[in-house]
Task: inverse folding
């Protein structure tokens, strides 16, 4: 008997995948703004998955930071650049067939191994909701990765400025 | 969970962590110093001085980090494998820093960018990422440091903004790289799901029995895809020729040397520690699923693809790229020899290969600045134009080909004999070693093709003009050539150090 969380998991997972697909390849629209809106939906469904994992704080951050702040910036940039609707590229038939075959093969292998595997019943440890254990972990066990991510962000920042700046000669 | 482990008495103080991670911290600080100096003080100076001063600050940082590790050898394992400091790791880090130092020195005369500070800062930050990569046994840290390294390397590839090729190469590198990062992450998360832990040792502990869980096999394949991309093993090598050709020469040299060393070290660690108990067997008639046959296939494929594709190249950089793919194949054989002194042979090989390929790219950079191209014909008559450079290139190329007194030969010999040593997981891989030796003979053809252009072919034009490479570059390339020669003649120096560093751990 399927429980409500299980059903919700499948709903959110399906929504995430479908919206993610529509971000990249929307058969009805080639407008970048539509893609961006579907990205918002993708992020929203991801937040739903986090809620199902009892990671409420992460879900909230996901909505606030990604669906909120980052996406607003995205839309700003798209509108500032005034991107025209993208031209649809002709997909080569051979490429399409080959791609579908390989995707199908990988999918079959994954499903097969999932079905055959004896997944350990001991559930992975969950971070129960509140921000206190999360904050504690970030400052004890995972302090170093946390710091390295800040260096990673610095690299991204330097890189973006470097690539987007016009070289004045 | 980790928090409970903390409470369980394995406390660590921030100061202790800072003490252990001091070399990495020094490198990161040097990067910040370079950025700040370039922004506040050097803006108005001539490009030449800016390059020199930024490079000097970076070199000071590298030397300080090396000195710190030599003077204060530390041992430590904090937070259950998230950060490990041991003699072997420190030795590899010193090797990485030496490679970075040489990269910085061969970038000194470059003219591909006006953003000197950013360039050296990114080189340093990539190095910091590699250093973190070699000092962890935790999949989370491995992923984050891989990303730090990769992101910096993408930027370094795109650095020549006047060159479309550079942008194209960077875009390809980025797209392939993020795809492979996704695969790695998927594989690592499966591992986490199977074992409930991110630590490699606990992951290994959850592998039971000779019959492997199919999901574990899936995780293994996905992890290998991601790491195989980093070390440019076939069939995940498609980015390498374009990047090696399109990126600015010093960046390409750095990608070919430093990231290879770090990549192979972490590949060996993930396979041997994280998948311990899932070795399988790649023997000719005794196939068993596991990571050994998987890597053996990748090794064979890389050697075949790399060596044969290199035969038809006319661009020296592409030739070096395919030769790098072939060498990735040889080094994968070294990964198979893991355990005991097998790892020492792999590290000896990757470090000397790093030095050699750095030198080769350094020569290509000089030639490209003089003639404007990197085709084989641009090297014609180099021995008459600049004899010093030609001799350096000869040493590098012959070492890559594996000719006796040079480091490349010793590395190959040592590694292949380690694989066949009784007791190594790679035992029974005689077929692979035979293939490697046969393909090394094939590789002689294209290596000698380069030397033929340099020493035999007539110089284009009158051939009377003598071009002198900048003094710093001559000195640096000479030093690299000397290092390759000395490491080849006296391999014991490095090998003993590597073996000694491994003994207590």
Result:
């Amino acid at each position: 008997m399927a429980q409500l969380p299980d059903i919700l998991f499948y709903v959110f997972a399906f929504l995430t995948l479908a919206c993610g697909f529509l971000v990249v390849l929307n058969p009805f629209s080639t407008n970048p703004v539509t893609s961006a809106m579907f990205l918002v939906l993708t992020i929203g469904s991801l937040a739903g998955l986090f809620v199902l994992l009892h990671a409420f704080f992460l879900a909230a951050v996901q909505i606030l930071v990604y669906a909120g702040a980052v996406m607003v910036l995205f839309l700003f940039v798209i509108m500032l650049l005034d991107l025209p609707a993208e031209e649809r590229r002709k997909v080569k038939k051979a490429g399409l067939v080959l791609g579908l075959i390989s995707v199908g093969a990988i999918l079959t292998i994954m499903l097969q191994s999932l079905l055959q595997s004896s997944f350990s019943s001991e559930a992975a440890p969950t971070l129960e909701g509140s921000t206190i254990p999360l904050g504690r972990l970030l400052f004890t066990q995972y302090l170093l990765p946390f710091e390295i991510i800040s260096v990673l962000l610095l690299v991204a920042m330097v890189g973006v400025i470097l690539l987007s700046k016009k070289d004045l000669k | 969970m980790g928090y409970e482990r903390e409470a369980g008495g394995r406390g660590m103080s921030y100061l202790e962590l800072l003490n252990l991670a001091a070399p990495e911290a020094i490198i990161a600080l040097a990067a910040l110093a370079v950025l700040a100096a370039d922004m506040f003080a050097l803006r108005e100076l001539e490009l030449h001085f800016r390059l020199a001063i930024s490079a000097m600050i970076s070199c000071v940082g590298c030397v300080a980090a090396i000195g710190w590790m030599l003077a204060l050898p530390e041992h430590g394992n904090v937070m259950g494998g998230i950060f490990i400091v041991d003699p072997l790791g420190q030795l590899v880090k010193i090797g990485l820093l030496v490679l970075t130092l040489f990269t910085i020195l061969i970038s000194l005369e470059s003219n591909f960018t006006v953003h000197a500070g950013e360039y050296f800062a990114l080189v340093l930050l990539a190095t910091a990422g590699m250093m973190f990569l070699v000092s962890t046994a935790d999949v989370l840290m491995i992923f984050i440091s891989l990303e730090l390294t990769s992101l910096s390397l993408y930027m370094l590839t795109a650095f020549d903004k006047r060159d479309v090729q550079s942008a194209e190469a960077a875009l390809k590198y980025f797209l392939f790289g993020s795809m492979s990062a996704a695969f790695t992450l998927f594989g690592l998360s499966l591992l986490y799901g199977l074992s409930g832990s991110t630590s490699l040792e606990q992951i290994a502990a959850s592998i039971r029995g000779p019959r492997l869980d199919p999901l574990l096999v899936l995780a293994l394949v996905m992890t290998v895809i991601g790491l195989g991309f980093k070390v440019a093993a076939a069939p995940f090598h498609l980015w390498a020729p374009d990047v090696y050709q399109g990126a600015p020469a010093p960046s390409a040299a750095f990608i070919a040397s430093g990231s290879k060393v770090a990549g192979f070290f972490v590949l060996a660690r993930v396979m041997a520690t994280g998948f311990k108990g899932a070795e399988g067997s790649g023997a000719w008639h005794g196939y068993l699923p596991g990571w050994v046959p998987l890597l053996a296939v990748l090794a064979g494929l890389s050697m075949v693809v790399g060596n044969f594709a290199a035969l038809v190249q006319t661009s020296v950089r592409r030739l070096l790229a395919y030769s790098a793919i072939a060498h990735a194949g040889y080094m994968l054989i070294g990964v198979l020899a893991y355990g005991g002194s097998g790892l020492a042979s792999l590290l000896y090989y990757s470090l000397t290969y790093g030095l050699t390929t750095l030198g080769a790219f350094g020569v290509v950079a000089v030639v490209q600045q003089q003639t404007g191209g990197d085709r084989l014909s641009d090297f014609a008559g180099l021995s008459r134009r600049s004899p010093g450079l030609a001799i350096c290139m000869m040493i590098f190329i012959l070492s890559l080909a594996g000719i006796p007194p040079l480091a490349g030969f010793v590395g190959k010999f040592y590694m292949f004999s380690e694989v066949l040593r009784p007791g190594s997981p790679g035992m029974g891989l005689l077929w692979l070693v035979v293939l490697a030796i046969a393909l090394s003979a094939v590789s002689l053809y294209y290596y000698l093709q380069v030397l033929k252009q340099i020493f035999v072919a007539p110089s284009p034009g009158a051939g009377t003009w003598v071009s002198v490479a900048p003094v710093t570059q001559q000195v640096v390339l000479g030093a690299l050539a000397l290092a390759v020669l000395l490491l080849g003649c006296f391999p014991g120096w490095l090998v003993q150090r590597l073996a000694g560093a491994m003994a207590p751990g």
Summary: Chain A touches chain B through 34 residues (CB under 8 Å).
